[in-house]
Amino acid sequence: MPARRKPAFTNPTPRRPKLPPDSLALSLFHAAHLVAAVRDGNNLTQQLSHLWSKTPDMDPGQRGAIQDLSYSTLRAWGYGERLLAPLLRTPPPEPLHALLLVAACRLEQRPDQAHTVVDQAVSAAGQILAGKLSGMVNGVLRNLLRRHEELAAQAQANPEGRYRHPQWWLDRMTHRYPANWEAVADAANRPPPMALRPNRRRTAAATLQAQLEAEGIEAVLSDEGALLLAHPLPVSRIPGFAEGLCSVQDPGAQRAARWLDLADGQRVLDACAAPGGKTAHILELADVQFTALELAPDRATRIRENLDRLGLTATIQVADCRDTAAWWDGQPFDRILADVPCSASGVARRHPDIKWLRREADIAGFAREQATILHQLWQTLRVGGKMLYATCSIFEEENTAQLAAFCAHHPDAHVLSLEGSSEQQLLPCADHDGFYYALLEKTG
Questions:
Q1: Measured between alpha carbons, how far is residue 141 from residues 56, 91, 92, 124 in Å?
Q2: I need a labelling partner for 169 at 20 to 30 A (CA). Which of 92, 188, 333, 361 fits?
C-alpha cells in the first residue's frame, strides 16, 4: 500500500480551471484534486463539501460525474496503483499522480471511450503545474492502453490489487470470515444500494412505493419495510422526500430502532446521534422522551434539520457522551442506543477513502474509546433497561470481543437474543451494509 504523504491538499480547487463546464476534462480535474487530498490523509466527504461550497453554480450532472469518478477511483485504488506502477519510474507530483489514477479508472469503466478519456485527461493535465507534464500524462495513458492486458494481470496477481483492500484489512477478514471473506471484499468494492425508510407517522410503505412507481422509480419492499431502489437517485427526485415522507437509510441501519424494543412513554437516549437517521426512526416508531447527544455542533445541527423535515421532536444536546456529569440529569433511561464511533469498515463502499485512511493501529484506539463509552453509559441505564450496542464495523475487536470484555467487567449485563442469536453481525452484501448489534439488559 502507498505510504501516506504529508497533508498538503486542504483545498481541492486551488483555482478555477479553464475547461468547458460540461466536459469530462473538468470532472477529471476536480476528481484528481479530491483523490490527491485523500492520498494526503484528508477526508473525502469534507473535501467534497469544500468543493461544492466553492462552486455553487456547478451543474448537478457535473457534480455527480466528479463524485462518481472520485468514489470509483478510491474503491479501486489498490488495483490502480499497481496497474500504473510499472509505467512510472518516479511517481509524478500531485495531483498529476491522482489524475493518472482517475483516468486509469475511467479507462477501465469505459474502454470503448479510450481516445476521449486520454484526450480529456491531457486537457485536465494542461491546467495543472502550467501543463508542464501534459506529455507525460499522454504517454503513460497510451502506454497503459497498449500494455493493458499484461499490466492488468500483474495488478490482479497482487492481493491488494485484486481485492482493492490494504493487506492488513485482508488479513483480518480472512481470519474472521475464512469461508466468505472474498464475498465481503467484493461487496465492499461495489457501489452501495440506496434504500428509503418510510416515515410511519406520515405515510405507509405501500403508499410510498406506489408514489415511486407513479414517477417511474422502481423500488422493492423488503420484509423489514425498507424500500430498495433499483437505481440510486438524488433525493430531489424522490417524491415526498422534502415533505418528510421518507428518509434515505440503509436497511441494515434500519434494524437498530426495531431491535431496541421500544414502547411509548420510555426515556430513550441516542448517545452518538448524528446525522440523526436512527434517532428519527426511533421517534417514528414510538412516543418517547428522547435525548440525542452529539459532540460536534455542526453535526448536531444536521440532527435538528433532519427531525424538522420529518416533523419530529427531541432534546438535542451538544455533549461528549462519556462526560455524564456535563449532560445527564440523573434520571435513568429505559433504552439507550450506543451507536459508537468505530472503524466504519462495514460501510467502506459508501466512504471508500476509509480503506486507505485507516491504519491497523487505529482499531485498538477505537476499541478503547468504545469501552469507555459503554462503561459511562451503563451508569445512566435503569435496572431492567436495555442498551443496544451498535457499530458499522466488521472487525472482531470492535464487536464480539468488545461485547465479551464489557460483560466480563459488568456482571449486571445480560445479553438478550436478537432473532435467535446473542449478537448480529451483518456483512456487506447487495441488500445492506455491514453492521454489528448486541442487546444488553441491566439486571441489577
A1: 32, 14, 13, 13
A2: 92
